[in-house]
Amino acid sequence: MSNSSRCAACKSLRRKCPQDCVLAPYFPSNNPQRFSWVHKIFGASKITKMLQQLPVELRGEAADCMAMEAYLRVENPVYGSVGIIYQYQQQIIEVQNEIIKINGEIAVYNALLQHQQLQQHQDSFFSTDNDFNL
Amino acid sequence: MSNSSRCAACKSLRRKCPQDCVLAPYFPSNNPQRFSWVHKIFGASKITKMLQQLPVELRGEAADCMAMEAYLRVENPVYGSVGIIYQYQQQIIEVQNEIIKINGEIAVYNALLQHQQLQQHQDSFFSTDNDFNL
């Protein structure tokens, strides 16, 4: 990659972007913000090291997740991505409680239906009795 | 803090642990693993900087979240904490679909109950007719 088309990382770090730049495929020059998040939270050397330790076919996904993780910590410096995890855990508990509640309603419906069916059978039984009496 | 009771961070970095060590309250010497996670993923200087930028009362929570975030990335070097977020998103979708399904079941129960109630009214109507006919 020529110096005139440095990746966002090399541009930010004011260095030449080598042909085999580890960061270039995942931090294109048209999205400097994305690199600035991971640079701020993890640092360029950690990111490079973490990507290098992965097989090439997994690096894109890893870079996306690191960028999201870094963005979430920039946005929420106390909780970061764990804040979203807590939020989702809470949401799952609430939705599961809703399911328990709805299943309770279904049990009531079932009991009502059985009661009505029993009553109908009784009614038809007495109605048959009447027919016999006629 | 004396050198003999250095915090996990200062012990790992082989330095003296000053009285006003920023990391000491959150990385006690009895849990070296916790510091090793954040050290590996964020680096000591980033952690120190991120904690220093927060009010003291929020640093404990932030250190816990950073430790969890770092642990999750050590455990899952591709997805990290974002992997848990994806997993929870999927779980929320599944549970919401279950609610939609159960609500559908409730609608069926409602229809069944109404149908039975209607039938009971009709039965009692005809039964009254019979009585009149008697």
What would you say about this model in short?
Two copies of one chain form a homodimer. The first copy, chain A, is mainly alpha-helical and 134 residues long.
Describe the fold and architecture.
Two copies of one chain form a homodimer. In chain A, 25% of the residues are buried. The first copy, chain A, contains five helices and no strands.
Descriptors for this entry?
homodimer, 134 residues, mainly alpha, 5 helices, rod-shaped
What is the topology?
2 copies of one chain form a homodimer.
Chain A: H1 8-12, H2 32-41, H3 44-52, H4 56-75, H5 80-133
Order of helices and strands of chain A: HHHHH
Structural class of chain A: mainly alpha
Instruction: Write down the Rg of chain A.
Output: 32 Å
Q: Tell me about the biggest sheet of chain A?
A: none
Distance between the ends of chain A? 102 Å
Oligomer: homodimer
| Mean pLDDT across all amino acids of chain A | 89
- Count the DSSP helices of chain A: 5
Low-confidence stretches of chain A: none
How many beta-strand segments of chain A? 0
Q: Which range does the strand content of chain A fall in?
A: under 5%
Question: What is the overall shape of chain A?
Answer: rod-shaped
